[in-house]
């Protein structure tokens, strides 16, 4: 079997790019001839010859894409891994033309996807685009239901959360966190410094939490809205029981997650958060907004009301080292089975 993934590849760090990297390694471990086109690409050292980082210039990007497409055999599965439709909707017609011979799969991972595409023109574009793709993977039920509602055939759709677990390493936890008193409750949140991550709802709770008992960690990575960044950092500067981490590698983040007592997902919209599933699997308590259907084991709160989140803190938390993890099965096997059906 041969697979070509097209999407972002770390760095920069993001849910989709981390998933692509993990899935690439999974495919290699399963004897698949796996390659990746990293559209973010520019200027990265090419440590893995199977990962093609696209250059900066449009002409160079096009030349590289044409070269890779000519090297891609007709039996290769081309898998578009996208968050929403942001950049992809502009590149999709070209990619469909270049890889017209190959069976194509698309994964849609962003909770903003529906809002971004829900217009008359957007729906028409989606119907045209997905007509040329064999399988459409959505990471949650909400996206799949939306696509079915605009006329995408049910047998083309599959709901498969993009979760591939990674083992933590306690030695990777930053010293500032590793040296905290063991009787402190460690609270972790993470995401882009963009407004839909809605960090204010957690920040509003901090003054009401005993600073001698709680330490709150904000792990920021990926895209940044400069105005929102200034707003959030200014608010966090008022608290001594807060640590800020920036652009940590995935192995460091999952190790911090394993050492945390509570993971808080504050988003106003969501796909299917890898961090939520990782936290559940590691035995970390999860507080998550009710903006989408969450995995079993999450305690839910309203993204509009900090009081509903604060109420969850008041209910008490079992220390992380006493938690029993909730089984979170890697979904890479399900995608692999889907591939087998396409080439059988």
Please give a quick description of this structure.
The chain has 13 helices and 13 strands.
In DSSP terms, counting alpha (H) and pi (I) runs of 4 or more, how many helices? Answer: 13
CATH level 1 name of the largest domain: Alpha Beta
Number of domains: 2
Task: Count the beta strands.
Answer: 13
Q: Distance between termini?
A: 10 Å
Structure, described:
The protein has 344 residues and is α/β, with parallel strands linked by helices. The protein has 2 domains: 2-164 and 330-343, Glycogen Phosphorylase B (Rossmann fold, 3-Layer(aba) Sandwich); 170-322, 3-Layer(aba) Sandwich (Rossmann fold), CATH 3.40.50. It has helices at 15-29, 58-71, 88-98, 113-117, 120-131, 141-149, 175-178, 200-203, 226-236, 250-258, 274-282, 306-314, 332-343, and strands spanning 2-7, 33-38, 51-53, 76-82, 104-108, 135-138, 157-159, 185-193, 214-224, 242-246, 262-265, 285-289, 299-301. The strands form 2 sheets. It has a 7-stranded parallel sheet with strand order 3-2-1-4-5-6-7, sandwiched between helices. Strands 10-9-8-11-12-13 form a 6-stranded parallel sheet, sandwiched between helices. α9 links the parallel β9 (214-224) and β10 (242-246). The mean pLDDT is 92.
């Amino acid at each position: 079997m041969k697979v070509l993934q097209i999407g972002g590849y770390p760095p920069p760090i993001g849910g989709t790019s981390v998933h692509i990297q993990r899935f690439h390694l999974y495919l290699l471990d399963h004897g698949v001839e796996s390659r990746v086109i990293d559209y973010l690409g520019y200027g990265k050292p090419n440590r893995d010859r199977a990962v093609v980082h696209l250059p900066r210039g449009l002409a160079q990007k096009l030349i590289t894409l044409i070269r890779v497409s000519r090297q891609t055999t007709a039996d290769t599965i081309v898998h578009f891994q996208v968050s929403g439709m942001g950049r992809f909707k502009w590149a999709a017609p070209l990619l469909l033309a270049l890889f017209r011979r190959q069976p194509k799969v698309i994964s849609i991972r962003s909770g903003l996807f529906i809002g971004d595409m829900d217009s008359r023109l957007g729906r028409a574009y989606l119907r045209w685009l997905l007509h040329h793709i064999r399988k459409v993977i959505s990471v949650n039920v909400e996206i799949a239901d939306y696509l079915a509602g605009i006329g995408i055939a049910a047998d083309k759709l599959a709901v498969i959360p993009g979760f591939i677990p990674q083992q933590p390493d306690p030695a990777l936890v930053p010293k500032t966190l590793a040296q905290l008193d063991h009787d402190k409750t460690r609270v972790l949140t993470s995401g882009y410094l963009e407004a839909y991550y809605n960090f204010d709802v957690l920040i509003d709770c901090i003054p009401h939490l005993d600073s001698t008992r709680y330490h709150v960690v904000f792990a920021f990575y990926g895209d940044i809205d400069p105005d929102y960044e200034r707003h959030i950092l200014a608010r966090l500067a008022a608290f001594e029981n807060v640590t800020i981490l920036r652009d940590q590698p995935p192995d460091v983040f999952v190790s911090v997650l394993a050492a945390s007592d509570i993971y808080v997902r504050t988003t106003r919209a969501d796909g299917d958060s890898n961090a939520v599933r990782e936290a559940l699997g590691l035995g970390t308590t999860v507080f998550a907004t009710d903006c989408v259907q969450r995995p079993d084991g999450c305690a839910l709160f309203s993204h509009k009301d900090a009081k509903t989140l604060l109420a969850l803190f008041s209910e008490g938390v079992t220390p992380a080292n006493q938690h029993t993890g909730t089984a979170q099965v890697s979904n890479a096997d399900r995608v692999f089975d889907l591939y087998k059906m396409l080439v059988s």
